[in-house]
Amino acid sequence: MHAQTSEIKRIAITTGGGDAPGLNAVIRAAVLAALNRGWEVYGIRDGFNGLLMPEQFIEGGLIRLTRDRVRGITHLGGTILGTTNRDNPLKFPVRQLDGSVVEVDRSDELIRAFLMRGLDALISVGGDGSMTIANVLSQKGLWVVGVPKTIDNDLDGTVITFGFDTAVSFTTECLDRLHTTAASHRRVIVVEVMGRYAGWIALESGISGSADAILIPEIPYDLNKVAQKILDRERQGRNFSIVVVAEGAKPQGGSVSVISREVGRAERLGGIGEKVAQQLQELTGKETRLVVLGHLLRGGSPTSFDRLIAQRFGAAAVRALENGQRGVMVALDPPTVRYVPLEEATRRMKSVPLDSDVILTARDLGICLGD
Ligand code: F6P
């Protein structure tokens, strides 16, 4: 049997998947809240690799998280624990003698290693992949509470994930900067942004940054419509246009643009911006440039909004453990935080609803959505 509420002495924190601004703020908040309850806190290095491959870490796979260790990190991007979006313990990539790679389920081994280190409960900070792992570990008896992170904002069950606001704010600033150069050179500038299969970043930054067209995965596009919009603007004396393209956007009847597929990890998206830029240049005859913002969206200081929800999530995760809750994810449900079963949070991806007021706003503003 695993520890009961009153028995908590040691907890661990892990950060998994792509990093997002606010991870360090969650770590600090959870550590301070746990230390204030007299618990010991350990950080697992690089997702779960600190437990599965401890020999790979000079400092050891677990780091004792003291007040000193988490001092002054709230505003820092990245994660002091390290992270990975490769070594999923449920589908761990193992290279065979013939060079091929097979996926192995190492979850039982992971739980054994966790308990052998005297750890009672786990706070798992991550996106859909990490919450799916957390859910399986919880079903196998590990005491887990999840915290939703991702710049993509595609996790169901929470109104927002931390990291998203920072990514949208940064993209908006880039769009402001690109407006002046696009206008000066009478160009079309296509801006590709991350977001995986959801269009949240593209849509919200596109509206905030006054884009003329926004292409998102939820609305397969017809580039003739975008070209039409650009040429209409031209006739009105607006000789430049800004087009925001989500990396997961796809043409009507077409498919997403994939950079690579590897065993043991999600497919890497990218390249759609280049196709869109090239085709728009052909269709409009206007000089077109492409900017791929890529991993820039994952770096930098979290916005105050992200710092605040990250810290609220970290503290709420500790309160959940104190109250004996397990198998749940902290979720933002303004004005408060609540807890949703991990099972529910991982059931489906949160895409942009086509009837949402944000979509309606874009249409009311005359922004072309490619349909
Ligand atoms: O999920 C976060 C994210 O940044 C996605 O927007 C993007 O598709 C992916 O991670 C990129 O992953 P990697 O770090 O492997 O390039």
Largest sheet at a glance?
7 strands, mixed
The name of the CATH topology of the largest domain is: Rossmann fold
Taken as a percent bin, the fraction of beta residues is 15-25%
- Alpha-carbon distance between the two ends: 56 Å
The count of β-strands is 15
Derived from helix and strand composition plus strand pairing, the structural class reads alpha/beta
Q: What is the CATH class designation of the largest domain?
A: Alpha Beta
* Mass-distribution shape: elongated
Order of helices and strands: EHEHEEEHEHEHEHEHEEEHEHEEHH
Radius of gyration over all CA atoms, rounded? 22 Å
Number of continuous helical runs? 11
Mean pLDDT: 96
Strand sequence of the main sheet, in spatial order?
Answer: 3-2-1-6-7-14-15
Label the CATH architecture of the largest domain.
3-Layer(aba) Sandwich
Which small compounds were modeled alongside the protein?
A: 6-O-phosphono-beta-D-fructofuranose
Low-confidence residue ranges:
none
Q: How much helix, percentage-wise, in residues?
A: 25-40%
Oligomer: single chain
Number of domains: 2
Keywords:
seven-stranded mixed beta sheet, binds 6-O-phosphono-beta-D-fructofuranose, 2 domains, alpha/beta, 371 residues, Rossmann fold
Give a written overview of the molecule:
With 371 residues, the chain is of the alpha/beta class. It is built from eleven helices and 15 strands. It has helices spanning 23-35, 49-52, 107-116, 128-139, 164-185, 200-208, 223-235, 272-284, 304-322, 342-345, 357-364; strands at residues 10-15, 40-44, 62-64, 92-95, 101-104, 121-126, 144-148, 188-193, 213-215, 241-246, 258-260, 268-269, 288-292, 328-333, 336-341. The strands form four sheets. The protein has a seven-stranded mixed sheet with strand order 3-2-1-6-7-14-15, sandwiched between helices. The protein has a four-stranded parallel sheet with strand order 9-10-8-13, with helices on both faces. A two-stranded antiparallel sheet has the order 4-5. α1 (23-35) links the parallel β1 (10-15) and β2 (40-44). α1 (23-35) runs parallel beside α9, α5 crosses α6 (200-208) and α7 (223-235) packs across α8 (272-284). The model has no long low-confidence stretch (mean pLDDT 96). 6-O-phosphono-beta-D-fructofuranose binds at residues 18, 85, 127, 150-152, 194-196, 247, 268-269, 298. 6-O-phosphono-beta-D-fructofuranose is lined by residues 18, 85, 127, 150-152, 194-196, 247, 268-269, 298.
